[in-house]
Amino acid sequence: MKRWHLFLLWALAALSVALLLALIFWSQNETETPTVHVVGHEAMAPFVEGNLLLRLVENLPTATTPASVDEEDSDDGKRIVERQTHRLPTNGPTFRIAVDKYVENYPASDLGFWRIEERDIANAIAQGLEILKAKNGTYAFSRASFDMVLQGWERRYNHSASEGRWDFIQGVAIPGTHGSRVNAPRIKRELFAHITGASSPDSTIDYALPIERIESLATPERLPKDMKMSHLLARYTTRFAKKKGRTINVRLASKALDGILLMPGATVSYNEMVGERSEARGYQNAPVIVQGQIVEGMGGGACQVSSTLYAAALFGGLEIVERHNHSLPSHYIAMGFDAVVSYPLLDLVLKNRYDFPIALKLEIKDNLLTAKIFGTQPRPERIIVRVETAAVIPFKEEITVDPNLAADEIRIRKKGHLGYRLERGRIRWQGDKESYDTFYDDNYNPQTQHVSIGTEAVYPPVDE
Q: Which one is the CATH code of 381-464: 1.10.12, 2.20.230, 3.30.300, 1.10.3470?
């Protein structure tokens, strides 16, 4: 027999053995259930009762209901062996939620409602779930899952009303648009009522998502004819450092606010108009104040724009709806006139309290930022802004002995700064009538002074 014949017979025999082993392995897997190992009790789902093992993952629940749960000893502690894994049944009403002509189906479980058995109630409560008694059974409710869906609707349908713009170059008004807002309290109340009142867990419930319209005060029909912003109500100027990052940030924030039109009673939110100060939106790093320290941060310079506008608003007689001061005095503006903003938590909100339209104008020339407030009529009142120092707060000192210094040397590593408490107010005269606006006190924290001294130095030094 030739050598290649022998090689062929050997290959065929090896292939036959491999096929036989594969057939045996396949037949064993057909008779045994696949096993999933979850190591440690902390890996188990939120609640367990008998052979019920549920895993609720936000608003997409899964479940494992094993035919048997065995505990085996292992080097890393208890091991739970789960069998027959499948999704948790989403029995409960289905909501057909409509917005105009758009309809979306939401099983009850997608909204945070899971229909459970009576024996699972105690463990559901132990995991922080709420229990709802309904006509068609008992439900475990995850408020976090429900809020997640609600926040998604708010992101999709909440839109601020636009109060319009004033084009200072063309001298014309650009009308605003209406906004919309999801009625969250009503949604919570009505969906709960539908869940608890449904006669069958398999029912389908049609629900129109309640969305309210936010009226804009600057619609075309409300804008005065032949409107002109010809009267300067107030102006305020600050100087900023000629550094690339800060200059870019000041220009971006100013551009977002320039030309905002405010009809009588309308408000403007700095954060809504300027938006998030992020790299994706063109902002850069520049010095900012964070927890009483000056550090590099995204959007540094945005607070100078808000502070300059706030100061102009004080002298312009606008109502101050929301404003916060920095924790430290700012180098570009006097204490009591600054306004810190931090998206989305700390905002500057101003309101037009006059009976005529006004517009904001922000200008940058060289390194000077000027905020101006114009109106269709002259300012009807004289205004004085009062800022008084009510208290000066001394700073603390931290003294460290440094053997690397000369024995009698004293070195100030970081200079301390005094703190202040200011009382603020605004006096307005209209003819013989005097009005007084009282604002909350401003508090600027003292900054600790850090001193290093040699091993024989006396601090503080004693005058001879």
A: 2.20.230
